[in-house]
Amino acid sequence: VQFVESGGDLVQPGDSLQLTCKTSGFGPDSVAIGWYRQPSGKECELVAAITGDGRLTKYSDSVKGRFFISRGNPKNIVTLEMNNLKAEDTAVYYCNAEAPLGHVSQCTNFDPAFGTWGQGTPVTVSS
């Protein structure tokens, strides 16, 4: 099982960015995927998730209305469109199976399903 994230960059407040997650090693239709983020010195946060069939999505309050998650074709590609970025969106972004998170200090110490994490992709929002 692998998760490969890409698309992170240094952007200015108000800019948009699209992150891409490529999954492998499991049937993409059967697993809900979430985008998690790890701000420096703060807890891991699940910001968006999408079901295996792509029909249902959910967002954290901190990104609702600004971020949009979708599945591509093929379905093992999951994108996160981020709009009107703010300084507080600065973090390393990871994708993984979606699971209830609770309070987790480090995303990579949490095991949603497969016991593995990708390298993540850093997003920095700064003027």
Q: Quick check: average pLDDT?
A: 96
Largest sheet: 6 strands, mixed
N/C terminus separation: 37 Å
Helix-residue proportion: under 10%
Rounded to the nearest angstrom, the radius of gyration is 13 Å
Structural class computed from helices and strand pairing: mainly beta
Give the CA-based shape: globular
Residue runs with pLDDT of under 50 for 5 or more positions: none
SSE arrangement, N to C: EEEEEEEEEE
Secondary structure tally, helices: 0
The order of strands across the largest sheet is 2-10-9-4-5-6
Summarize the structure.
The chain has 127 residues and is an all-beta fold. It has no helices and 10 strands. Strand 5 and strand 6 form a beta hairpin.
Describe how the helices and strands are arranged.
Elements: E1 2-6, E2 10-11, E3 17-24, E4 33-38, E5 45-50, E6 57-59, E7 67-71, E8 77-82, E9 91-97, E10 121-125
Parallel strand pairs: 2-10
Antiparallel strand pairs: 1-3, 3-8, 4-5, 4-9, 5-6, 7-8, 9-10
What does this 3D model show about the protein?
The structure is a single chain. Helices cover 0% and strands 42% of the residues. By secondary structure, the chain is an all-beta fold. The strands form two sheets. It has a six-stranded mixed sheet with strand order 2-10-9-4-5-6, with no helix packed on it. It has a four-stranded antiparallel sheet with strand order 1-3-8-7, with no helix packed on it. Strand 7 and strand 8 form a beta hairpin.
